[in-house]
Amino acid sequence: MSLFHKTLASLGLGGTRVDTVLETEVLIPGQALPVRIEVKGGKVAQAVDNVHLYLCCSFEDEQAVSRGDSERRMEKVTRTHTLAQWHLPQAFTLAAGEERQFDCRFELPLNTPITIGYSGVWLETHLDVPSALDPKDKDSLTVRPDPLLDGVFTALEQAGLRILQVECEAVRGFELPFVQVFEFVPVSGPFHGRWRELELITQRDDDCLRLWFSIDRRQRGVGGLLSGLLGSSELKRQLCLPLDLSPSEAGERVMRYLDQVDDL
Asked: What is residue 205's DSSP assignment?
């Protein structure tokens, strides 16, 4: 075992490598995700103190930034949130060229963001290798809406509403430090000419799918739901869909609600 090879391994060259293998890359919240972690030794034996697996997503936040004067300005920043994690319970030593596999299983949290627009979800795998650059792997996931939420989206689309933008934005008062905001515009149908934009926030719990709506009927930007949400301790204009509804029933109930609402 040469000193040269040891030095290269400590720099991450010719050292231990890790690869995360997914049985499926398309998932829905609440679904189980089996994962196989493949670790391959390099040119020298190396100790591995731990294997870490993180299910992550990103969201937009604001923070005060000083520009060198007395005034502080709010600027948008992107933060990473860990939705779930797994760790190998024991350390091991990997011989040169040796291969090992570790299996684990994630359950996607019910409020894992849907991967539309700028909303990303991914798996990060890290190895703790003493006195060396830690090997890493990153795999993007595709998260689709569950059948109930998909029924809501289908009903909105059939009513002529199209998704314009989707973002995860920081907020207080929820289980997660952010909510996912779906912004729709009417391009045809009964709301065309009546509405400018519709914003929708969704949250799943053990009992129902909760929806919050904000409608902009005027020709101005939506100050809308999120500014009110961030500035107050409670959310109003809420619709709760029982989980035993069929997707079509969920969509019909949402459309009846939107037809009846006089002032959101």
From this structure: -
Token pair listed for 230: 């961030």
- Class of the 3-143 domain? mainly beta
State if pTM tops 0.85. Answer: no
CB 143 within 8 A of CB 114: yes
The CA distance from 199 to 201, in Å, is 7
User: Mean pLDDT over all residues of the chain?
Assistant: 83
Per residue in 95-133, pLDDT tens?
Answer: 888 999 999 888 899 999 999 877 899 999 998 888 656
Residues shown for the chain:
264
Answer whether residue 44 shows pLDDT above 90.
no
DSSP string covering 159-194: TTEEEEEEEEEE-SSSSSSEEEEEEEEE-SSTTBTT
Residue ranges of domains in the chain: 3-143, 147-263
Residue 5 φ/ψ, nearest 5 degrees: -65, -35
Distance from the Cα of residue 76 to its chain's centroid: 18
The single-letter code of the amino acid at 219 is Q
